[in-house]
Amino acid sequence: MQSPEPGRGRWKIAWDVRVRHFATEIVFVHPSCTLPISLTGDWCALQCAHCGTHYLKHMTSIKKAGVTGWSSCLISGGCDALGRVPVTSHLEQVAALRTNRRLNWHVGMIGEQDMQNIASYVDVISFDFVGDNGTIREVYGLHYTVDDYVRTYIMLRRYARVVPHLTLGLRGGHFSGEYTALDILRRLGLDTLVILVLIPTAGTRYAGCRPPVLEEVAGFLLEARQSLPDTPIYLGCMRPGGSYRRRLDELAVRAGVNKIVNPAVSAIRLAEGLGLSARWENECCVFGRTR
């Protein structure tokens, strides 16, 4: 894909939106001060098509968590058969982690009583939002609908700040409901959006898939920037590496995103060339707000 110039068509529109609504600053993140913790070790009942517990194996078990030197934690874990992270299973340990630290939670399809029980330990919730019923069934093996995700999102917002995450190409590298999800979130309201991109991961059911084509990803970034002119948009940590990441990060800068986690060097240079000043953060991207 050729490198588009901000002066052309949709790229100019998106860039102008960014210039009108945000300072000439871009935030880059190396989340080296946030400790990822799993409440379930490497166990998960779902064995999702894109993960298969692979990402849990790179987290620290709550039973072994030593937090010296960490200023924040990501509290996550595997899900039960109903897609719920057992958030109340280790509240005593979580309470100890809470002291002088901020906590970002992955909660899955949590019930309201559990949300009430953990509310005092929550700074922010990262909620994976899906806009297609078939994707929910194929990826997670769950029989929820998009309406269930909407109800959960609305409920969560009554108790905490919630940052929705959209994974582009989640259904085996193909777009399936991402634009629907974007429209729903725009109507419901959000203060930040995190965009992720499927990584075909060895040992998972999607290992042999390809990530979504960059043209499609770029088109979504442009649409997101234009339809959410006042909303900070972040390119999160889950996205393919190598040349794909380099090109994606460059496109994200040109499309007007506000924050990039672990950015490619070329994207940092591009941002500088476009007149953006860089600010660096060292915790999960959802902790810092961008305006």
Write the layout of secondary structure elements.
Layout: H1 9-21, E1 25-29, E2 34-38, E3 60-61, E4 72-76, H2 91-98, E5 102-105, H3 112-118, E6 124-128, H4 133-140, H5 146-157, E7 162-168, H6 178-188, E8 193-197, H7 214-227, E9 233-235, H8 242-255, E10 259-261, H9 265-273, E11 277-281
Parallel strand pairs: 1-10, 1-11, 2-3, 2-4, 4-5, 5-6, 6-7, 7-8, 8-9, 9-10
Textual characterization of the structure:
With 291 residues, the chain is of the alpha/beta class. The chain has a domain at 34-232: TIM Barrel (Alpha-Beta Barrel). The protein contains 9 helices and 11 strands. It has helices spanning 9-21, 91-98, 112-118, 133-140, 146-157, 178-188, 214-227, 242-255, 265-273, and strands at 25-29, 34-38, 60-61, 72-76, 102-105, 124-128, 162-168, 193-197, 233-235, 259-261, 277-281. Strands 3-2-4-5-6-7-8-9-10-1-11 form an 11-stranded parallel beta sheet. Helix 8 links the parallel strand 9 (233-235) and strand 10 (259-261). The protein is globular and about 55 Å long.
Kindly state the percentage of residues in helix: 25-40%
Strand content: 15-25%
Q: In terms of quaternary structure, what is this?
A: single chain
Q: Write the element-wise H/E pattern from the N-terminal end onward.
A: HEEEEHEHEHHEHEHEHEHE
Unreliable residue stretches = none
Principal-axis shape: globular
Q: How is the largest sheet built, in terms of strand order?
A: 3-2-4-5-6-7-8-9-10-1-11
Calculate the terminal CA-CA distance, rounded to whole Å.
30 Å
Which CATH class of the domain at 34-232 applies here? Answer: Alpha Beta
Largest sheet: 11 strands, parallel
Mean pLDDT: 94
Fill in the CATH topology of the domain at 34-232: TIM Barrel
Count of helical regions: 9
Structural class: alpha/beta
Please tell me how large the radius of gyration is: 18 Å
Number of strands: 11
